[in-house]
Amino acid sequence: MTRFTDSPYEYLMTQKPYAGRERDSGPVPYPPQSRCAGCPYGSGKPCIGVCMKKLLSQSKKSREGDEKHGKNA
User: Which residues contact residue 66 at a Cβ distance below 8 angstroms, ignoring those fewer than 6 apart?
Assistant: First the structure.
């Protein structure tokens, strides 16, 4: 292919974008013995430092307790 200019950037602009090529294999899952295995936050996302399993189970328990006592949120 002939180029219009001698600029090295012209060659780079004709290439396909490189973004996303390293993720073709998909996210690496946590090992089964890890405390983060089965996290509902999402696989492949970085850890946010808060155990979402604990957080969701606590909120579920509090909702069940509110329903038993007749509290509406």
Answer: 72, 73
